[in-house]
## 1
Amino acid sequence: MPTDNRVSTVLARRLGGELLRLRDAAGLTQPQAAQVLSATAAKVAKMERGWVPFRDPDIVALCKLYGVTDEAMVRSLLSLAKLDRERRKAKGWWQHMPIVGGLGEYIAMEEVATRIRTWHPALVPGLLQTPEYVRALGVTSNWSHPDEIEALVTSRIKRQARLWGDSPLEFHAVLWEAALRHQVGSVEVMRAQLDHLVQMAKLPHVHVQVLPFRAGRHHGVDGSFNIVSFAEPGALDVGYAETIGSTLWAEGAEANEAYGRAFARVSRLSLAPHDSVSLIDAISKGM
């Protein structure tokens, strides 16, 4: 993954899109915006597409030009720019692991997030997987070489460090019952994974819910997705989903609200955390 400034990031694209919306609302052109920045129209175009980091003076100047008088909105844009700059400068462990692949940008945001909500209809979420479960997944996927599988295990364990420490990540996972009954690896591997889920669910910042079969057809999406939240005021959530051969980012407020509503629905239909743990424990003992 590129680590310099010549990369379009999710956060920068969101910020650029918001500035583009404000420029259009003000009825101004890119050359007019460039003039106030003493820059070129090409630079403004790159900013609006998220290809360059944003300087605070540029954001303030553009907001003034666009007639933005809401100080809270300006602060939120500055906070988003600061978060993007920090992400670009991050020298994380994932940058040295080819196995991470396209997950690099997501992991970078995971590292600075304060809360993640995730829906998984088929598998246990990565942050709650045991090493043996990860190895079993690696064997049945494209990772055929033992070294590749161990690298996958190492990267997963490093990501799980966010659930520990002085400022642990708040993690809320909703799983379909199928994810608990879908045997990955041997019976022993699966039982250990379910027991690990029970233990992790006891942490005050980890919330695990199960959507049982008896709830009927759920109204969530077919595939898994994550919603990443940040501490900065005004920093909107980021929705993330993987499909076959591609990665989807929810970069606008409207798309993020759709992910939020989908998660709220499956959470509302699911068992309470205490009852969810009881079901997980019962499935484990029944194996």
## 2
Amino acid sequence: MNPAVQRLGNPLMERLRRPEFQTSLIQMVKIIFATTLAWWISVNFLETSLPFLAPWTALLTIQATAYRTLSRGVQSTIASVLGIVVTFMVGNFLGVTVWSYAVAIFVGLVIARIRWIREEGITVATTAIFLLSDGFTEESRNFGERMVEIIVGVLIGILVNLLIMPPLRDRQAAGYLDSITRRMGDVLGDMGQEISSSWDTECAEEWIKEIESLESELESAWSTVRFARESRRANPRRHIHLRRQPTAPDPVDGPNWEQVLEQAKDGLSHLHTITHILRDATYDNSPWDERFREKWSAIACDAGQAISDPDVDTDSERLRMRIDDLSREMSEDEDLPSKLWPVYGSLITGLRHIVSLVDEVRAARREEILQ
């Protein structure tokens, strides 16, 4: 195979394997199936004269999580009923004119501000638009038929999203956390390797850029974790899991992602501080103590490997003991230049905080496997 084609194919396959891509693809297929099924039922069983209401409400109902689908389904039903009521009131008493059309939309938009249907509130106005644009004919005036169409569409949307692979966002949240912690570990490990010999301003600037990129990814991870937590609510896959594995922990809470993210945020902050210290040190010609540089870099390499690859059997308590031993050894050295102590102390403190992330990452990975 042509190497250029192979390089092109690998990112494509990687993207296809991503959980978020697969989830989005499944959701698209379900939306297409639900709306088409709702239209087919409207035409062949309900024999409605307006076969667009059922597929339209089915389309509105299917959401990214099972809980949101139920919630939005109820809101869609209420909003559609209110839209029909507005249409019938305006159509029967004012007729269909330019002014009555505008009045119906105005009333629909005002009702859309009601808090408990706000997410689907615009449906009130759009329902009025659909029915009044049809000229409010005898077929449009059949209130019972319009209600049946809406209920059928909502039920189909809910059932399809709940029964056909209801979306769980756990893999997306776990993927973000894996990416963040692995990249943090890689930066720390790279620092350890560079510092063991020498480093320059360019190296430090690259670390800073990578950390800033990680901070942006961390913001995205927060929203994904909240989404994953919501995806577990009202999800039948959770109950199926419990029936198949009655002794397994209830996955309603899942791994403590929020705590890991807080630790990662704190770790990034300390990593940022360490990087700035190392960058500033490149402008100072003062010689570094070789023992400190050798031992600190060795601990940084081991901690980075433990964070980037939680499957590696690394004793975090042993890492902390090595940090304490280094601190004690440096503090007892009377020949150590006093001007370097703030630098060494900051590097030791920052590394101690980052090491605490090792246990959190390992615990979250363990809980993820149990799910």
## 3
Amino acid sequence: MRALIFLFFIGCFTLIACNHHRVQQQPVVNIPKALEDHSASHKLVSKRGPDELVESLYSELAEHDAGLKQLEAALDALDQSKEEAAGSFQQFDAKSQSYYKAADQHMNTISDSLLKDKIRKLVEEHLAKYKAITEKHQELLKAIDVKTTKLADLHTVLKVVKTLPVIETYQKDNRPGTASLESYSKKQDGAIEDINKMTH
């Protein structure tokens, strides 16, 4: 009798161990935080619009991808250095342009028309010289603006290209079945039939 009880317990333990092992063997589907229904990022997406989901997914990818993380750090550094590179000239140019506007206002107060024309010509000649010596600066600023736009476009393309496989995997692994929709559709059919019976 004891031997039977002992064999029974061994069988139970073996069954539990096998089931436990089987549970551990099941693949765990990793859903990105941005796609979890109750996550803070889901609430953020709802508030800010659907485009934020791309940003959220990309940010999550960049956290775990060394290459993307390095690229994002380089782009941040590039943005900061742009201010340092262009800031000094832009400040210089703003002061110069402000001076010419003020000079023009002063010229308008001169009552002698010949003197006014003479001083206007002098200021215009000076302004032409200023434009000539800062022409290269202006061309470089325009080129920088064009490249800034191109970088922004490429960055957007990168985010979409990198997150498309993520949303595709999510769709593949988490697509609900049609059973609940079919069941609800049948209930609607039943309600329609009941109403039809009552109205005829």
## 4
Amino acid sequence: MKLYSETSGEGPELILLHGWGAHSGVWTGLRELLSASFRVTCIDLPGHGHSPYTASAMVSLPVLAEAVLAIAPPRASWLGWSLGGLVAQQVALLEPGRVERMILLGSTPSFIRREDWACAVEAGVFEKFNEDLLNDPQATLLRFIALQTRGSKQAGDDARLLRRMLLEPSPDSGALQAGLQLLRQVDLREQARKNHASTLLLTGTRDTLVPKQALSAMAALFPNAGLALIDRAGHAPFLSHRDETYKVIHRFMTDTATVSEHA
């Protein structure tokens, strides 16, 4: 199975990986800005956008990362949003020599709250999504969109934009279930200590899935990480605060030092 991808621009290689239920179309505005300085490749994960879905493609995070690596440039920087950030982390663990830099946008090594990991979502939230997904996939996706935009300065506008982008085409229901399982089960905190790529941890100050307090906890795990916050943004700052998000990413990609300041 070969995943669908689109490439634009010239310059250093930069790969964009979307989140759960999304597809590469979600990057349209940010991609346009980044393509002025970088060769940007957007990849549709299995069962999302124009990529076909087979159950074997998302049976585990390493298998999913291998599918992405199969069509990725030999060496690149990786930007992963939400679930895409988990894939980017796994890529760096499997093939560290192929990762120039890594940007985790609204992402974390563990989305689920655990005994020693308080800055995350209660497991019951994703369990409820999993139950609802079996009964009404589209309604569940709409509720997840609402969760992603909750707290944003312009939550209503963000939700409408995400709905328009994500539901055309709609993701495969099997891919949604498999992706949700990954969000519920994956815990890469210990492995993060082995990830020596220059890393930017980036989220919105009003993100309810990856709260800003999680960044300091994450920074203690990654050996070479810097932090950045997008003020008054929710889980998708590249939509609600596109220009601010672009500036932080561009600075990180072009500076020789790791970004360690707030936007």
